[in-house]
Each structure stands twice: as C-alpha cells, then as structure tokens.
Amino acid sequence: MNKTTDAAVIVMRPPDSNDHQNNPIEHRQEVMTPRIYIRTFWMDYLAMAVLGALGLGIYFLRPAPNRVFPVYFSDGEIVYPEFAHPFGSDIVPIWLAALLAFIVPFIFIMLMQIRVRSFNDVNTATMGLLFSLISAAVFQVFIKWLIGGLRPHFYSVCKPNISASSVGTGTGYDGIMFDRSICTGDEKDINDALESMPSGHSTAAFAGLVYCSLYLNGKLKIFANYRPQYWKFVLFYAPLLGAVLIASSLTIDHYHHWYDILAGSVIGTMFAVGAYRFQYASVWDFRFNHIPLPRVEPDYGFDYHLDHLQESMSGSRKGGWKNGRIHGAPFDATATLSVLPTSAQLRV
C-alpha cells in the first residue's frame, strides 16, 4: 500500500492482473442463454423433483411407530384431555399455507426488479426460495413419519372402542396402555392424527416467509450503515407476523400442540437462513447480502471485494450503494475499495 503526499487519501495499489482472486471484475462472464441455463441448473431442478416426490411419497405412508397411549384411568377419568379436543377443519389448509409461503416472497422478488432489473437475481432468489420450502418439507415429513405424535383431536378421530371397565387389559403399568388397534375411526384420519410432530404448516410458513424477510433486508438495506425509513422496518417484520399467525392458528383449530409449532418454526427458519446464505454472498453483512453468488463460471468464487458494489445493484440507493462507496463493516469481507476517503473527507 502506497501513501500519497496528500495525507487525506489512502491509495490502494491495483491488484495484479494475474491474480483472479483479487480482481473479480476482469473475470469473463458467459451470456446467459437457455442452453447455458439448462446446463448450469438442470441438476438442481432434478434434485428438487426427486426430493419433492420423496416427500410426497412419505407423506402418504402409514406412520412408522406403533404408538401406545392411555385412554382411561381405572376410575373412568380420561388420562390426557389434551388429546380429546373436537376434530374439525383446519383454519388454514396445508395447501394454502404452502402457497402463501411461496407466492408472498415471489411477489416481493418480482416487485424488487422494478429497481434491480436482474434475471440473475430473480433466478437466484426464486431457486433459493424453492430450496428452502422443499428441503424443509422433506425434513419435517421424515420426522412426522418416523416420530410423529398424537394430535390434540386424536381421541375424536380414533374413536376408541374401550370403556373404563376395560382398564387393566392393555399393556404397560397397570395395563392402561393401548395401541391403535382399539380405534374404530377412519384409517386415513387416524394416520394423520398420529403425525402431530412437527407442524408442517409452521415449517412451510417460516421456510418461505423468513426467507422473504431476509431477501427484503438484503435488497432494501433495512439493517445497514444508516437509518432507513420506518416503513422498511415494519415491512421486514410483516412476513414474520404472517408466519406466526399461520402457525398459531393451529392451536385454535386443535391440529397441533405448541411444541409441534415451535419445532416446525425452528425447522423452517433453519432452512430459510441456510437457503439464503446458499444463494447470496451473506445473510447479515449489509455490503454483500444483496449479491447472488456466482454459479456460471464459479472457478474463483466470490472474493468479497468492495469493488463488487460498483457493479451489483441493490434495491436501495442510500448508504453508498448508488456510488459504490461503502467502507468497513464486520462479518465476511476482508478487502476494501481501491481508493478510500478518510474521515476528514467524509465530514466535508
């Protein structure tokens, strides 16, 4: 690094032209054509199709564990009233929860293109959203099938053919435990009522809508190096409110316990954060969390050089994104712009 006679300016020596790692701008980029697109992403779409088919197949399987449960004590008292809630229709059907989890973020992705105008960003964001939703769904459906649990309306669906006088004829301590063989209800409803843990509604809602909030933060720079308008802060939390409302409705219609909802929410959030970072240069580093990671010719990867800001468009024009003058922040980056003004210059 060379210092000029002007103490107010620090000039960084230009990177060696042979050093691709430090000079990302000179990388050759292929023009995206349908042929290149298919060649680049066909395996991702195949993997999503396979995972989707796998998840759907597991969804229709009979629950794996042979769960046992008590119904009555010897005095005729119901052992677990929390499993005796009435069975009815769910307030938000699972298909609607999944649709909202996709369509709401997708609408914001497309609206953001009014400013960003990038096919690469649309493709990166949409594929990341699909990765989050599909992966989270398969993850939770495996747990439902292999672990599961009794839904709050289990007794109403099971319709056990047993009375208090039958206590002692089952298994376990004092013979009070029975399995689904005492159920007389519809088999499909019983299968579903044995797969309470975790909540699929919560998983889908948080996988899609947390991803939406992260995308909005990256494009609008809600948590950045300046204080934006308050409506951006509200907009960031609006999808999260939607996810909480969808998930919480399951306690009203007696489809899930609170711990099922919590587990589904954690799974969905986990995949939303993972999918966003899988697609974008950062989750929280405001300098780079709007930049899609390279997929076409990714030999050298993304080098976290601030010169990227001069060629990567954010939805915001404040905080330095309009002129590419962003300086210093924690997290991923280690490099700086070629010429940085000092604090004295910034005060002018």
How would you explain this protein's 3D organization?
Helices cover 46% and strands 3% of the residues. The chain is mostly helical and 348 residues long. The chain has a domain at 33-60 and 91-151 and 194-290. The strands form two sheets. It has a three-stranded antiparallel beta sheet. A two-stranded antiparallel ribbon has the order 3-4. The two termini are 25 Å apart. Residues 1-28 and 332-348 have low confidence and may be disordered. It is found in: Membrane.
Average pLDDT, rounded to a whole number, is 82
List how many beta strands DSSP finds.
Answer: 5
Specify the oligomeric state.
Answer: single chain
| % residues in beta strands | under 5%
Helix content: 40-55%
Please list the strands of the largest sheet in the order they lie side by side.
1-2-5
Rg for CA atoms: 27 Å
Main location: membrane
GO cellular component, one term: membrane
Keywords: Membrane, Transmembrane, Transmembrane helix
InterPro entries: PAP-like, PAP2/HPO, PAP2/HPO_sf
Compact summary:
The protein has helices spanning 34-59, 94-116, 119-146, 154-158, 187-193, 200-220, 230-252, 258-279, 343-346; strands at 2-3, 9-11, 69-70, 177-178, 339-341.
